[in-house]
Design goal:
This protein has 117 residues and is an all-alpha fold. It has one domain. Helix content is 79%, strand content 0%. The longest helix is centred in the first third of the chain and has 24 residues, at 2-25.
């Protein structure tokens, strides 16, 4: 079971890397007012959602303790990110504040995952 959990952790990290990487590649465009949500951001957020749900299920099945409050907050932040990216994915330009909010929420989600023990 540990190997399977570690595979899903790795996939979860790949998802966050895709989401954050997609944001970081658009930083210059955001400064110029022409940033847009790219497919890597949408796919990264979806990967995080699927692997996160799987990780919670696998950890509970393995009788490990799961901090439901932490997972609930991370899920809520991810749903907001996913909603924003999904709704605005076809727009040629996204408002700087909205684009920055997605990047900020992504970083917040990383800090919640790593600092909340």
């Amino acid at each position: 079971m540990d190997v399977l959990i570690n595979v899903f952790v790795a996939l979860h990290i790949i998802g966050i890397a895709s989401l954050l990487g997609g944001f970081l590649t658009q930083m210059k465009a955001m400064g110029e007012g022409r940033a847009r949500f790219n497919p890597a951001m949408l796919h990264g957020a979806l990967t995080m959602l699927v692997t996160g749900v799987a990780l919670v299920g696998l950890n509970q099945a393995d009788d490990q303790t799961v901090n439901n409050l932490k997972i609930g907050i991370k899920l809520a932040v991810l749903v907001v990110i996913l909603g924003l990216v999904y709704v605005k994915r076809d727009d040629e330009k996204v408002d700087k504040a909205l684009f920055g909010a997605v990047g900020g929420l992504t970083v917040v989600n990383i800090f919640i995952a790593t600092l909340w023990t």
